[in-house]
Design a protein that fits this description.
Shape: globular
Number of helices: 18
Bound molecules: flavin-adenine dinucleotide, FE2/S2 (inorganic) cluster
Largest sheet: 5 strands, mixed
CATH topology of the domain at 15-188: Ubiquitin-like (UB roll)
Mean pLDDT: 92
CATH class of the domain at 15-188: Alpha Beta
Strand order of the largest sheet: 2-1-5-3-4
Structural class: alpha+beta
Radius of gyration: 23 Å
Strand content: 15-25%
Length: about 500
């Protein structure tokens, strides 16, 4: 409160929602904090350019831009799904919708590019695609063709066909015009997200210090945490179940940390797109997995902590982080404790978190260049799909070609992400050869009894898991170790696709 007083009288009470919409600051004190930004834009503001398709983050029709701090710390436009954003998630932030793009008589370059490329037919998907292209217009890091696929894979179009849309993206991406949107950025930096509303049986709090967090938790020990909302908001938009007490951890700046070191710290509140940038040179297997993780709009909101704390057996970060020897850092009022990440998962969608305890982040040892490590995701569709089987693998091999360390972790094979203990034991102390890998692949039959579902039968999953180990040997039998190839089409690379740099 003292800090708010220092900031002056102009701040509204903490129970007021306040954000900037298309250049105008808006204050709302009567709306349920679990109202989605999409419903607000359409029903309250009449901004119906932002469409609803799926209400679950899959189609991109609801894409809007929010200003966030970019990788270099400078504010940047980020396309996000308005259907998954609860209003307090834009507290203190600048939101741009498709209605604001036209400046006077001039359409935005993203709109012009779509028109010139004939990228729209029925037009339902078009505003969302334009907002993804709006972000792309100002990206300085769009250098490779695959990055355009990544930029666009969260936007579905039923009728136009993707070639004209891709042509539009190629025309506009990274052009960085010096226009009014760029001029507005320095003054659009996100401000405090502090928020506290408790009425009609509904609590939503965004603390900005740990003291505030512990105090709210003492009063409401059963409150649920939320950060990006890309898992939790679906309960509201798809199951119509509104959690009565929510605490957003997004206002705790310490949780956003991504710190390089002999042990890297990946803060639980770091977004997946921030982690994608951070891991490119430091943790290539994590970077590779994130290429196939959801879509850019989701990666701008989804967080490291959200992915780990849902404890889904098909979550994509757990296998790769467990294989890299990650440690979970947990904090409560009583202090901090550390757990090997594999011990953090205690059962199907269960974690070792105790009541009133949060995940601060994970510590991941830096990868020596001699370590062989990779991550794999197998899904029915390449982009924006859920894993049938996923894996993170790491081996260290001595100068005499003997395996001295093996960590093989699999998703989709059991109720939790699990290490293949029998396969690891079969490798340890053996020469790193195809014959040893074959024995380990067979030993893996004792590690898992996967289930059959619509993503894959049990025999299919067992075969895929064993084949991923064989593929890992094939891929990592080259030196130096492979990187994500620019035009790659799968997480399993063939020798020809492996890039050495
Ligand atoms: C369209 C779509 C595609 C997706 N694709 C993928 C995919 O390819 N791979 C994949 O693995 N996942 C995927 N997801 C799931 C989701 O995006 C990720 O799990 C994401 O990392 C969740 O992060 P979040 O911050 O949004 O979590 P939230 O929804 O905010 O929270 C999720 C859960 O974690 C808890 N939690 C969050 N942070 C903490 C913390 N610090 N301490 C304690 N508890 C915490 C919350 O209480 C909540 O129960 C997808 C989701 C959508 C909607
Ligand atoms: S409505 Fe489909 S992603 Fe939001
Ligand atoms: S133009 Fe009809 S869905 Fe894309």
């Amino acid at each position: 409160m003292a800090r708010r007083a220092q900031l002056g009288q102009s701040l509204p009470p903490m129970n007021t929602l306040r954000f900037n919409l298309n250049g105008q600051w808006i204050e709302e004190s009567g709306l349920a904090p679990t109202t989605t930004l999409l419903r607000y834009l359409r029903d309250v503001r009449g901004l119906t350019g932002t469409k609803e398709g799926c209400a679950e983050g899959d189609c991109g029709a609801c894409s809007v831009a929010v200003v966030e701090n970019g990788p270099d710390g400078a504010p940047a436009y980020r396309a996000v799904n308005a259907c998954l954003l609860l209003l307090p998630m834009v507290q203190g932030k600048h939101v741009v919708t498709v209605e604001a793009l036209k400046q006077g008589e001039a359409y935005h370059p993203a709109q012009q590019a779509m028109a010139a490329a004939l990228g729209s037919q029925c037009g339902y998907c078009t505003p969302g695609i334009v907002m993804s292209l709006f972000e792309a217009t100002y990206r300085k890091d769009l250098k490779q063709p695959w990055q355009l696929d990544d930029q666009l894979c969260g936007n579905l179009c039923r009728c136009t066909g993707y070639r004209p849309i891709r042509d539009a993206a190629t025309a506009v991406a990274g052009t960085c015009p010096k226009d009014a949107f760029v001029a507005a950025l320095p003054a659009s930096r996100p401000t405090s997200m502090a928020f506290h509303r408790e009425d009609e049986g509904q609590l939503f709090v965004t603390p900005t210090t740990f003291d505030e967090l512990w105090a709210v938790l003492d009063e409401h020990p059963d409150a649920r945490f939320v950060v990006g909302g890309t898992d939790l908001s679906l309960e509201i938009t798809k199951r119509f179940q509104v959690p009565p007490r929510l605490i957003s951890l997004e206002g705790l700046s310490e949780l956003h940390t991504l710190r390089e070191g002999a042990t890297h710290l990946l803060g639980s509140g770091a977004t997946l797109s921030e982690l994608e940038d951070f891991s490119a040179a430091r943790l290539p297997p994590v970077h590779r997995m994130l290429r196939y993780f959801a879509a850019r709009q989701i990666k701008h909101r989804g967080t490291v902590g959200g992915n780990l704390c849902t404890a889904s057996p098909i979550g994509d970060l757990p296998p790769v982080l467990i294989s890299l020897g990650a440690t979970a850092v947990l904090r409560s009022r009583r202090g901090e404790r550390r757990l090997a990440l594999e011990d953090f998962f205690t059962g199907y969608r269960k974690t070792a978190l105790e009541p009133k305890e949060v995940l601060i982040g994970v510590e991941v040892p830096a990868l020596p260049p001699t370590t062989r490590a990779a991550a794999y995701k197998v899904s029915k569709r390449r982009e924006l799909d859920i894993s049938a089987v996923s894996a993170g693998m790491l081996v260290e091999v001595s100068a005499a070609n003997v395996v001295t360390r093996a960590r093989l972790a699999f998703g989709g094979m059991a109720a939790t992400t699990k290490r293949a203990a029998h396969a690891e034991a079969a490798l340890l102390g053996q020469a790193w050869t195809e014959a040893a890998v074959e024995l380990a692949a067979k030993a893996m039959a004792n590690d898992f009894t996967p289930m059959s579902d619509h993503r894959g039968s049990a025999p299919y999953r067992s075969l895929v898991a064993a084949n991923l180990l064989r593929g890992f040997f094939d891929e990592t039998s080259v030196t130096p170790q492979p990187r994500l190839a620019p035009g790659h089409a799968a997480t399993v690379l063939t020798h020809e696709e492996v890039r050495h740099d």
